[in-house]
Amino acid sequence: MRVRQYVYFALKSDGVSAAEMTARLGIEPDEVAIRGSRRAEPMIRPASHSWKVVCRQPYMTVDEQIDHVLDRLLPAA
Questions:
Q1: What InterPro entries does UniProt report for this protein, alphabetically (predicted)?
Q2: Were both Cys, which of 26, 27, 47, 64 would link to 60 (CB 3.0–4.6 Å)?
Q3: DSSP string computed for 12-68
Q4: At residue 10, what are phi and psi to the nearest 5 degrees?
Q5: Is the residue at 1 inside a domain?
Q6: What local confidence, expressed as pLDDT, does residue 34 receive?
């Protein structure tokens, strides 16, 4: 059985939009959700705004995936 693992860093907020998070951080996210928006999958409307940097690259160890995400976040530090 093949293991599918991934690593992500997420910010969530009821008041700060994903666009504002992007502007404040100066980093483009891989995924966003807009509070109350309609989506095809899943059918549930997000309860909050979210902003994510994700690493789903196969054949990497978890440590390598974490390093990849942290490297993406480093410019905002």
A1: DUF4279
A2: 64
A3: EESSS-HHHHHHHHT---SEEE-TT---SSS-SPPSSEEEEEEE--TT--HHHHHHH
A4: -130, 145
A5: no
A6: 74
Q: Tell me the per-residue pLDDT of 57-68, one tens digit each, with 9 for 90 and over.
A: 999 999 999 999
Contact residues for 23 (Cβ-Cβ < 8 A; gap 6+): none
In a domain, 33, yes or no: yes
Tokens representing residue 40 in the block: 């095809």
pTM for the model? 0.81
Query: What per-residue confidence (pLDDT) applies to 4?
Result: 87
Q: How many CA atoms lie within 13 A of 71 on its CB side?
A: 7
Q: Is residue 2 part of a domain?
A: no
Total number of domains constituting the chain: 1
